[in-house]
Amino acid sequence: MRRLIVLLSASLLVLTACSDVKAGMASPATTSSPQTDAVPGPGVPKVDSPLDTTRFKQTPCEALTGEEVTTLLGSGATAKEELSAPGGPTCNWQPAGTTQATVGIIFNKVNQAGLTAIYEQQGSTFRLFMPVAPVEGLPAVAYGLKDERTTSGRCAIAVGTSDHEMIDVSITQSEANVGKSDPCTAAHEVAEEVVKNIKGAQ
């Protein structure tokens, strides 16, 4: 996590949750609904050791500890939890003050196809499609309706927690940080912390 600070900012990480719908609020990109008996689809990595996220679907803001949030966004950061958000149970964190910084996490319930829903739309719906290193042993991919890494500093990482489920971890860098570091690296590191916390609670 300390490396994340160095990558994005010497002080606060000025982040906003990735949102293809509304800036500042984590929102999953719309996906189609592949047949759930056909997952994982062709080329989609299988989740050999599924992660039980049941508890965190009820308390998504516990996916990051208070200390981790402070490290990311500074003291006084607040959390907004939405258990009935359209994409699934969601938590968005915002720092104190007037910045637009947030980090967003969604326990995605758009469909029951997991990463297959994203893989099937690579190059069409999702112009940004980039498999990334596993997150604590779980397959992951960076994706978006368009590639906004260098223009807006936005990136979302989807982590397959089972063949049928995934978690979205999304960030957007501040204007001061856009182009200075890869937002997908930051999102990946936050995703690692989230998965570690979920595993640690089991």
TrEMBL record:
Pfam families: DUF3558 (PF12079)
Cleaved signal peptide residues: 1-23
UniProt keywords, alphabetically: Signal
InterPro entries: DUF3558
Domain of life: Bacteria
Name of this chain's protein: DUF3558 domain-containing protein
Native source organism of the sequence: Amycolatopsis plumensis
